[in-house]
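Suppose you are handed only these lines of text.
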Amino acid sequence: MNSNSISVKISVLLPVPLDHPFDYVSDKPLAPGTLIQVPFGPRKLYGVVWNEKNPTSSKTLKPILSVFEDVRLPDVSLKFIEWVSEYTMTPRGQILKMALPAPEVFEAKGESLYGLTKPPQRLTPQRQKVLDFFGASTTPLPLAEISEKTEVSEVVLKSLLKEGVLSLKGDRPWAPPPPPPQKSPQKPQLSLDQSNAAEAIKKSLESHTFHTFLLEGVTGSGKTEVYFETIDHVLQSQGQALIMLPEIALTAQWLQRFETRFGFQPAIWHSDIKQSQKKITFRAILEGKVPVLVGARSSLFLPFPDLRLIIVDEEHDGSYKQEEGVIYNARDMGVVRARLSQATCVLASATPSLETELNVCSGKYHSLQLADRYGGAEMPDVKLIDMRKVKKASQDWISPQLREALHQTLARGEQAMLFLNRRGYAPLLLCQSCGDRLMCPQCSVSLVQHKFQDKLLCHHCGYMTRLPSTCCACQEEGSYRAIGPGVERIYEEVKMILPEARCVLMTSDQLTTAQKVSERVQQIQDHEVDILIGTQIMAKGHHFPLLTLVGIVDGDSALSGSDLRASEKSFQLLHQVSGRSGREVRKGQVLLQTHIPEHPVMQALVHQSREEFSALESDQRLIHGFPPHGRLAALIFSGKKSHDVEKIARMLAKKFPLTEKAELLGPTPAPLSFLRGQHRWRLLVKTTKDFPPQPLIKVWLSKVSLPSTVRIQIDIDPYSFL
Ligand SMILES: [Zn+2]
Ligand SMILES: [Zn+2]
Ligand SMILES: [Zn+2]
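From them, the structure of the protein bound to zinc ion can be written out as follows.
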């Protein structure tokens, strides 16, 4: 630093799990949000200038290493990080990390470029390809691109680099992705409901003030056309729009619809996207060059400079809640993000959550309804099959009525779907002679038999083993017996009943990527499949015109357990699955197998009386002060030693501050009392709606010192109670 320069103290937030910014010195003042690089212990870290004054310390401060002059997180992103951190009680650094997924993309140096220096001494067909490539073109390229263009592996290229055949020729600064090819957009004719909804949203967009809408309509009512119409409006005003979808719902078919409508592809952001692509997208977003992005929940944290519209598709979907790392609900945070930038938020669903419905009732959200199935198709009839009265063999899971319906559907040349939300062959294995149950060694749950892959799996920690030939307890030979059905077992049964039928399984075991989902969806649309058997992965918005029968194998499976939303979630899932049946001109039917046909969930499905059901559910929650009428925060304690975990949970419970507004439930061992080798206990803090629990929890936890052997996770607005 020369003698003329001033020395300014700069506060810097770093993308590490710490809440407070660190102080450094700079030779000039820097605006909050500016991307910089600083020394941090032995490491160099990217961070952003934070608008916060630390108390002066006498320590000598380290100078910052570099400043990225024009790279700044927008103010709204900084506010959003503060807000989410405060609400979820998560260190700010951890939230920053989500807003800054690839800061290295702003390095001026960019990517290293390689070119041909001399011919190799030894030639192979692979090496010849590289020579030919550079014979025709002399421009140096990054290794990854040479590999892509020559179809020669990077291993081969690196060996050429080592021998000096290829060498470093320079660097290429990051460039924005080439503009997508523009085809002429196709505007569809909207129904009256659709255009009314779109107009209301456009009016909000024009007002530049924050509004939240609930766009309510059943599967097939044409919500997507409303999204597109409003996105079009944002595009014309040069703003940005974000559409969030449940992860697996983003298929090639959906993207095709978008491209047909707009003539270009939107940017995409989810866990399957390659890091190199994420870098390009991230940079383009911060530079305001991404007009529309479609993504999973994590896309909400991306630093859009002028986000005008956030659409949350299937707003009730549980996958918007991130349960690990930073625990947050992307739907709720989406509304907050919209408010911070005076944007418009659209929550869409056929079966809105009670939280959202209450916000409509209280006037916070505006309701928009799409009444009809677009194109005039009717909702399917739902019939209950009372399994208590059905006569069938004990190892059969499909009732005679459902079997008959399958026969008839296939005879008409149509398709059927069997739904069971249980992966694998059987959820439980018991020894027939001593009753021993095969458990995961690291979790307090049964191992699930996956017969088609010949293995036993823990669905919670991923532990995998083979079926032992003798009982682990009594050593009896071949004594384990599969109890209850999973989708593989249903597949087996269908193969027995209808050996000629073309069946496929659709679960996350088969469909591991969005690509595979797209391929399977295409197969079904092309009528290469007669019966699909699957879990909730196939409940999402696919469009199968020939599918006219949905059979729900076990309608009761999600109703048991300790989840206060069990009924609500069951209804949403079964309703969504039912909606797969009969679209366009063919009327569909749904056969729902249940042991409790009188249950309000079953009755609401049969009578298509969602509103009555919601009202009933809501009243039940009101009596107990549960969400949406009250607030919850869960504290989950975990550790290697059961005794330590219990002790801390009990000790903390004793110190809970007494107030009329808050109540403590627990401590109790968690339903999943042992998970990945950790013992678990839970506490639940219940407060009234007007009393956010965070400040109370902060004070409460600050009064006790916790041993390092017990970890506490705070889950605000818990969605899972395991
Ligand atoms: Zn309003
Ligand atoms: Zn045994
Ligand atoms: Zn396990």
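What can we learn from it? Residues 381-422+485-618 form a domain with the Rossmann fold fold (CATH 3.40.50.300). Residues 431, 433-434, 436, 471, 473-474, 476, 479 surround zinc ion (ligand 2) (CB under 6 Å).
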